[in-house]
Specification:
Blueprint: H1 3-39, H2 46-71, H3 79-96, H4 102-126, H5 131-150, H6 162-169, E1 171-172, E2 175-176, H7 177-195, H8 197-207, H9 209-214, H10 219-245, H11 256-266, H12 278-297, H13 303-339
Antiparallel strand pairs: 1-2
Subcellular location: Cell membrane
InterPro entries: ABC_transp_permease (IPR001851)
GO molecular function: transmembrane transporter activity
Length: 340
């Protein structure tokens, strides 16, 4: 067996093992929906399904951006704060300038998100400050900035342009705009990671930053790009939040960073980096959202939502560890046979 053939075979094993994670999420979703629908037939009504996908759209969008960062063995805890800042700031600008439309709102939101991502990326990639410390700090800085701008005020739906509200509540062929936007972004990012050499660099960095650097991968630039994308999608998420809910205050999306990280890890993106897909992260977001909706339909105490999310997070991390050990064992055996 040649080295190239062995490498392809090894990659095939890794892909197969972690693709099984995504399949398990789909099966869990199917079982959850079937059980809930059996208990309450309205759960699978057209409106019920629409609400689930609308509720999952923004979380899945943020999970896609977070996946980019986690794959490089980093984390971004500031995404919830960025969503809140963008939602209020863009809403404030639109309320004061009724002539502005949805295009301006999206561009402004993405720009604000990119600035936040740039700060995170510079400190992590060039400043060499641990990502957990940087993004925890910027989380509080952005929250404070949001409260300073809001100064106790509230943005109301009646103050916003009709085009913005239509983005959050409109649909095409019966499919809401928000899930469509998330799916398009997810497919584009997933295709890039899978099909381009620069996209595969992110996985190389997550597997081993030192080895990636020795192989000529521009580690700092790639990590910077990951944070820029995460910030940009958080900015877009803030605009979609504004369009979806209309009425926003300074602390919107507070605590969402933990939900986003949970969705990413539950979706099979290893917290240690180098493994996972944006498709799995989006499925993780859909699973968590469906659990929330199911608990509401079944009239279960909301406490159990947090308990189940925490349990899923612990289970996902444990499964990642077991799979990583199993894959490492398989690779050692194959390398030993190849060496002999």
């Amino acid at each position: 067996m040649t080295a190239v053939t062995a490498g392809r075979s090894t990659r095939g094993i890794v892909d197969l093992v972690f693709r099984a994670r995504e399949l398990s999420i789909v099966l869990a979703l199917a079982v959850l929906v079937a059980v809930t629908a059996a208990a309450n037939g309205n759960f699978l009504s057209a409106q019920g399904l629409k609400d689930i996908f609308l509720n999952a759209a923004i979380l899945a969008l943020l999970a896609v951006g977070q996946s980019f960062v986690v794959i490089t063995r980093n984390i971004d805890l500031s995404v919830g704060s960025v969503v809140g800042l963008v939602a209020f700031t863009v809403g404030d600008v639109l309320a004061a300038n009724q002539g502005l439309g949805v295009g301006v709102a999206i561009v402004l939101g993405i720009v604000i998100g990119c600035v936040c991502g740039l700060v995170n990326g510079l400190l992590v990639s060039f400043g060499k400050v641990p990502a957990l410390v940087v993004t925890l700090g910027t989380l509080y800085v952005i929250q404070g900035l949001d409260h300073a701008i809001a100064h106790g005020r509230q943005i109301n739906a009646v103050d916003l342009p009709r085009s913005v509200l239509s983005l959050g509540n409109g649909s095409v062929l019966g499919i809401p705009y928000l899930p469509l936007i998330t799916v398009v972004v997810m497919l584009a990012v997933g295709y890039y990671l899978r099909s381009y050499a620069s996209g595969r660099d992110f996985y190389a960095i997550g597997s081993s930053p030192e080895a990636a650097g020795l192989a000529g991968v521009p580690v700092r630039r790639r990590v910077m790009a990951a944070y820029l994308l995460s910030g940009a999608l958080a900015g877009l998420g803030g605009v979609l939040w504004l369009a979806r809910f209309g009425t926003v205050v300074a602390d919107d999306a507070h605590g969402w960073e933990l939900q986003v990280v949970s969705a990413v890890v539950v979706g099979g993106v290893a917290i240690t980096g180098g493994v996972g897909t944006v498709y799995g992260a989006a499925l993780g977001a859909l699973l968590l959202t469906t659990i929330t909706s199911a608990l509401v339909v079944l009239k279960v105490n909301p406490f159990w939502q947090q308990a189940i999310t925490g349990a899923l997070l612990l289970l996902a991390i444990s499964v990642d560890r077991v799979l990583a050990l199993r894959v490492a064992r398989i690779l050692r055996r194959r390398n030993a046979r190849h060496g002999s």
